Amino acid sequence: MGKYPQITVNHEALRSNMKQVISWCRDEGIDVAGVIKASTGMASVALDYEYCGAKWIASSRMEQLQRAKADGIKLPLMMIRVPMLSELSEMLEICDYSLQSEFSTLKALEEEAVKADKKHNVILMADLGDLREGFFELEELVDVAKYVEDRFDFVHLAGIGTNLGCYGSVMPTKEKMEQLVAYAEAVEDAIGRKLEIISGGATSSLMPLFDKEMPERVNMLRIGAISLVGPQEDLRTSYGRKEVDVLDEAFTLEAEVIEVKTKASHPIGKLGVDAFGQKPNYKDRGMRRRALLAIGRADFGDIDDLVPQLAGAEVIGASGDHTILDIEDCKDVIKVGDVVQFKLKYSAIMRLTSSENVKINEVDRLYGIKL
Ligand SMILES: *Cc1c(COP(=O)(O)O)cnc(C)c1O
Fold first, then answer.
1. Exposed (0-12), middle (13-18) or buried (19+): which is 250, by Cβ within 10 Å?
2. Could you tell me if 290 and 352 lie in one domain?
């Protein structure tokens, strides 16, 4: 196979981002679970998190956590997608922590844990309105917590947590964080002891932290996106925050040019639908120079998640295996065989690192090695 398309992972940038995130959190008494799902669980990313001081390695995919364990990660592993009944015994082998939201799953987990003679820590999720996972009623959360506390010997109630900004785009405001702490305290009243963990969300929960609005008792965040994506994450969750300017993009995509021609900008003929059954609007900008790249939506998903580093270039469209770049306004002369670089947003990193068409080039100048 050829060299391209290729994604380059700059581990120095990655560790610098992680150290910054962990230091922001540490200043507020918060430990970080390093979430590796956005890079499809790359072992080197988990090792970077471990090196930088994360307290857990977390993923939403059991396969990724299994690999992290096999690759020598020493930190406790945490499953952050509520588990399937069909993966509980695997989970007990691989993970020390998981997020939970179903009583029936917890009961099955205790049964499996007794069989396996293995302790396991759970964080019960409270759904505070984002409407993905979690107990919706406080009363149910408290009842289940008390049941786990009183009746289970192998499954340990470590804490409660929440997730926001995923389905319902609900922001982790001061009020939501205070509500989470109030829920934790209701659980503590019922079980008669303090919880070890109050887990206040993901990257987006850095916003109340930056504003010094994070209640003191929130002591864990589960962070992936911003460490990997750096400032490109800005639009999704951090709404133009100055704080993220110190971060760096750690992932760069390189794709090879396979055709360069001047063509009409509006398609010619009777228009139906494109490769994905859509009817896009095409603007007639006259004849324009364009470069065709050997990479496509099968690899990266959506063209909006690619940020071309070639000045004047614009991604105007893509099919499964081709991407079209308008280069009419580029100062540089682009020719077949050239390589174009892109910075990447969250979902492009997730897809590109899992595409078998894309080579992964890991560079680490600290160790002077190519991993
Ligand atoms: C993905 C995920 C995270 C991490 O989110 P980022 O935006 O990548 O920081 C945290 N918690 C849960 C439950 C998740 O699914």
1. buried
2. yes
Mark whether 69 is an active-site residue. no
Please give the residue range of the domain that contains residue 338. 251-363
Query: What is the DSSP code (8-state) at residue 40?
Result: T
Name the band, by pLDDT with cuts 50, 70 and 90, for residue 236: low
Burial 134-145 (b: 16+ CB within 10 A, else e): bbeeeeebbebb
Going by C-alpha positions, the residue among 278, 284, 108 that lies closest to residue 98 is 108
The answer on 123 and 50 residing in a single domain is yes
- Which residues approach ligand 1 with their CB closer than 6 A? 35, 37-38, 60, 80, 99, 163, 202-203, 222-225
Read off the pLDDT band of 318 (50, 70, 90): very high
Q: What does R_g of the chain's alpha carbons equal in angstroms?
A: 23
| Residue carrying structure tokens 């409270």 | 126
104-143 pLDDT, tens digit per residue, is: 999 999 999 999 999 999 999 999 999 999 999 999 999 9
CATH of the domain at 188: 3.20.20.10
Q: Which of 56, 61, 222 to mutate to test the pocket of ligand 1 (most atoms within 8 A of CB)?
A: 222
- For 184, residues 6+ apart whose C-beta sits below 8 A from its C-beta are 159, 160, 195, 198, 217
Ligand 1 centroid to residue 223 C-alpha, Å: 6
Catalytic residue chosen out of the listed positions 19, 37, 194, 261: 37
